[in-house]
Amino acid sequence: xxxxxxxxxxxxxxxxxxxxxxxxxxxxxxxxxxxxxxxxxxxxxxxxxxxxxxxxxxxxxxxxxxxxxxxxxxxxxxxxxxxxxxxxxxxxxxxxxxxxxxxxxxxxxxxxxxxxxxxxxxxxxxxxxxxxxxxxxxxxxxxxxxxxxxxxxxxxxxxxxxxxxxxxxxxxxxxxxxxxxxxxxxxxxxxxxxxxxxxxxxxxxxxxxxxxxxxxxxxxxxxxxxxxxxxxxxxxxxxxxxxxxxxxxxxxxxxxxxxxxxxxxxxxxxxxxxx
Length: 275
Ligand SMILES: [Zn+2]
Ligand SMILES: [Zn+2]
Ligand SMILES: [Zn+2]
What we know:
This protein has 275 residues and is α/β, with parallel strands linked by helices. The chain has seven helices and 14 strands. A seven-stranded mixed beta sheet has the order 6-5-4-3-2-1-14. Strand 10, helix 5 (181-187) and strand 11 form a beta-alpha-beta unit. The chain binds zinc ion (3 copies).
């Protein structure tokens, strides 16, 4: 499995759009790994996760071709993950992709459908509503949505995903808080090759509900190891950072021993695709 991180920031980006805090000033100056755009990833070049407005800039930057894309998983309807209007551009005349091509199917919870339904067109742009813990088959992947602990006072029904292909499994858990016992019981019996964890709070130890930081990431690794869903071969990644809890990339690596710290453009490869 080849996981490419296209965007690795929380909603406001790093540097944040209107911010001149120390971290944002540093990121503006140093650039490179310190600059983070809005959240999204791409699996094996064919399965896209999330689609913020920045996805267009990422398509250009990484020489991708979204006209070939047939499947997009959406975690939730926050604007840094789901730019509904952009999907409307899949239709004529905004795109000249012929109708003989397979449609682009967007997958997510029902609130995502409610937002996009005015843009849908059969055979061109479709939406499939997912139900937590009910796996769906997408190409060679088995995708299991989990209910995320995020925006808990809203009714946006956020999801995070377990994506399996053959012997490999990716846990992509962003915009969620610590795993619940229910989550862990559904992870039992799986063996993750890659675990990507929400690290929005970074070095800050905040107790609001909806995101994680370094401390929680280290704890979640212990929990996954304890239930047997991870082992010494599992690659752990911290991702989805806010400027508020962020320190420079190298410093973040020191604070997360055994983790990869994501950056825009980072590729993690496992199994056959790693050869
Ligand atoms: Zn987010
Ligand atoms: Zn800032
Ligand atoms: Zn969110």
